[in-house]
Amino acid sequence: MIIIAKTLKGLEDVLKQEIIDLGGQNIERLTRAVKFEGDTALLYKSCLMLRTAIRIMKFQGEYKVLSYDDVYKLIKRLPWETIFGLRDTFAIRAVTSSVKMNHSVFLGQKFKDAIVDRFYTKFEKRPNVNPINPDFWIDIHLRENNMLTVSIDASGESLHMRGYRTYPVEAPINEVLAAGLIKLSGWNPEIKFLDPMCGSGTIAIEAALMAKNLPPHVRSRKFGFMNWKDFDAKLWDQIKTDAYKGLQQPQYKIKAFDKSLQAIKAAETNAREAGIDGFIEFKRQDFFKEEVFEHHTVITNPPYDERLKLDDALDFYKKIGDHLKKCYINSTFYIISSNIESLKQIGLKPSSRVHLLNGALEAEFQKYEIYEGSKRIRD
User: Fold this and answer.
1) For residue 70, what is the DSSP state?
2) Buried-most residue among 166, 213, 242, 256 (CB within 10 A)?
3) Residue 352 neighbours by CB under 8 Å, 6+ apart
4) Helix H or strand E segment including 49
C-alpha cells in the first residue's frame, strides 16, 4: 500500500529518515509530507512510532477531475461500503488549490453527497456524518492541475496530541515540533540534555522518550485505523508488544528548568502521564542564574513577545547571548523563536538556521556552538 505521512514545514527530511529507519520503501519527500510504501504492519507502526508525523494517511487513489460534477460522479463509483458501514460515521477534510474549483467547503460537500448517495442506492439507508469525532476521516486534496488525491486518515486525532500533556501552560510548543527540533539537532542520549526554559516540559519529555526508546504516545492512545473493517487486533497487539521490548536506560537524566513554579508543576505532571518522570530532573530556576553547564546539548523555546509579552524583547535576547558565553562553555545551544529581530540581539553568529512554523508563526531554529572565548558579532 501507499502511505502518506504529513508533517510540519521544515521537518520533511527528519521524517523521511524516521521512515527509512522504520522500514519504508520507495520513499518520496513531498512538501510537508513524505510518501512511501509498506504493509499493514508498517501503517500501524507509523502511527505508533513516528515522532515527527502529524497524520498518517492510507492513499486511496488519484484522479483527474474537471468540475464539481466530475468529483461527484467519480466518488459515487468508488466502493465505500468496503471501507466502512452504515453504522459508522465519517467526515471530509477538503483542501483545494485549483483555480477552477477553489471552494473547499463546496468540494467537501460534493464528496460527502456522493458517498451518502452511493450507500442509499445500494442499501436505501444513509451513513451519518460526524464533523467533530467521526469513525473515519477522509482527506481530499485538489491540486492546481485538477488532480484529486483521496486518502483515509489512519491516525485519527492529530499525532501531535500524544496524550501526556494534561496540564498545559500558556503557549506550549507542539509535540511534533518539539520532537523535530531534537531530531534536527542530531542529539543522542550519550550527550547531556537541558531545556532551561521548559514551560510545560514538552521538549524535555520528547527527549526523554527518545532516550528511553519509548513510543511517543501514551499506551491508551486510540488511532483511526482501529475503526476500520480490516483492523487486525492481533497484529496491533504484537506491534505494541515489540515496541516496548527495546527500551534503553539513558546514561544521563534530562534536565528541565523554568523560573515559573506553575510551569514546573505542569511539566512534572505531564512527565508522569508520559511515564518518564523518573528520567527528567525538574528544577525551578531562572535561566540567568550563574551556573555553568559544560558539554550539554541545550534546546529551548523562550517566551515569544507576540504571545507572552516581554517587557523588552530585544534586551531579553541580548541577555541570553551574554549568558551563553558565561555559562554554556563547550555546549551546543539551540533556540527557536518567531521574533527574528530579537534573535539578532543574541550577538553570536549561528552555525546553522532552519526555517520552521511554530503554530501559525514563522520561526527560526538557530544553532550556536559555544566555546571558551566565543566572540560576539561586530557591529
Assistant:
1) H
2) 256
3) 366, 367
4) helix 40-49
